[in-house]
Amino acid sequence: MDNLVKVHGGGGYDSDFSDDEGPGESSEKGLKRKREEEILQKPFQKGRHSKVAHRSLHSNELDREEARNRRAHLISMNAFERHKKFVGDYILYYGGQMADLKRSRANDKTDVDVLRENHRFLWRDEDEDDMTWEKELAKKYYDKLFKEYCIADLSRYKENKFGFRWRTENEVVSGKGQFQCGNKRCEKQEGLKSWEVNFAYVEHSEKRNALVKLRICPECSFKLNYHHKRKEVKAKKITKRLSENQEPPQKKKKKKTKRSSSHSKKHKHKRHRDRPTSSSSSEESQDSDKDSEAGDEREGQSEADHWRGPAPAVDEKSREEEFDDYFEDMFL
């Protein structure tokens, strides 16, 4: 019988079903078991393989795993590394040399190169026409510069050639060009002098002039004035506003005192005419006239002082004006 299985270690046979069960009952139990397994099987659960997997299935699974690993490797690389890898794979599979695929860097430009090409010592309204992104970058850098004092290059002073540029923020903070010598190769801080220089330069095939201010030491001043003398800027003496305001009232005083004295003299002549021409009376009249003149002059002065106008208001300097007076010598 086909359903008989030989039992090792014995000479008897055992069947798959008992004596009471027939072949129909066993098939029904098998169907029930399959139905229960189908009911209990989860949607994401894979079915059981009753046979050995085919070789193609194995190769497909390996390909999928390799693709996942390669994708993860490419994602971890940046754009330049991926480019190098693809170029290397191309040369490996199709042949060739790396020199044939190298890009020419002759036209590459950095931000510094763009600034050098489009930089201007002074920007005018005409220069801001037809602005490109290169010009906007140069204009933005120009706006960040400090244009009160210049930094000079005096290395070619014997040829009467000088280079000037504006100061940066770090140079302003350190005092370079104002409290230190404005020559870029000098750091002296004593005996600094201020000079005004008419800077003539050629920019973008166009001649331009600019009046710049420079503050340098005596040795660098000799280099600057090697061919001809430049204009030195000196501190101007400040006249107090109080003295200016007090000068006009003094002139008014003199005019008023003159008027009062002439008025007293007219009164004197009238009194001489009205009084008798005796010697005693003349002497008394002279003495009285002198006293009256002195009194009139005093009264005239006092009246002039009172009636010339309101008392001169003393202008008190504000805090900003005091700071301007204090820093005026420094900013020359």
TrEMBL record:
<feature type="compositionally biased region" description="Basic and acidic residues">
    <location>
        <begin position="26"/>
        <end position="40"/>
    </location>
</feature>
<dbReference type="Pfam" id="PF09725">
    <property type="entry name" value="Fra10Ac1"/>
</dbReference>
<feature type="region of interest" description="Disordered">
    <location>
        <begin position="233"/>
        <end position="332"/>
    </location>
</feature>
<feature type="compositionally biased region" description="Acidic residues">
    <location>
        <begin position="321"/>
        <end position="332"/>
    </location>
</feature>
<protein>
    <submittedName>
        <fullName>FRA10A associated CGG repeat 1</fullName>
    </submittedName>
</protein>
<feature type="compositionally biased region" description="Basic residues">
    <location>
        <begin position="251"/>
        <end position="274"/>
    </location>
</feature>
<feature type="compositionally biased region" description="Basic residues">
    <location>
        <begin position="45"/>
        <end position="57"/>
    </location>
</feature>
<dbReference type="InterPro" id="IPR050645">
    <property type="entry name" value="Histidine_acid_phosphatase"/>
</dbReference>
<dbReference type="GO" id="GO:0016791">
    <property type="term" value="F:phosphatase activity"/>
</dbReference>
<dbReference type="InterPro" id="IPR019129">
    <property type="entry name" value="Folate-sensitive_fs_Fra10Ac1"/>
</dbReference>
<feature type="compositionally biased region" description="Basic and acidic residues">
    <location>
        <begin position="287"/>
        <end position="320"/>
    </location>
</feature>
<feature type="region of interest" description="Disordered">
    <location>
        <begin position="1"/>
        <end position="65"/>
    </location>
</feature>
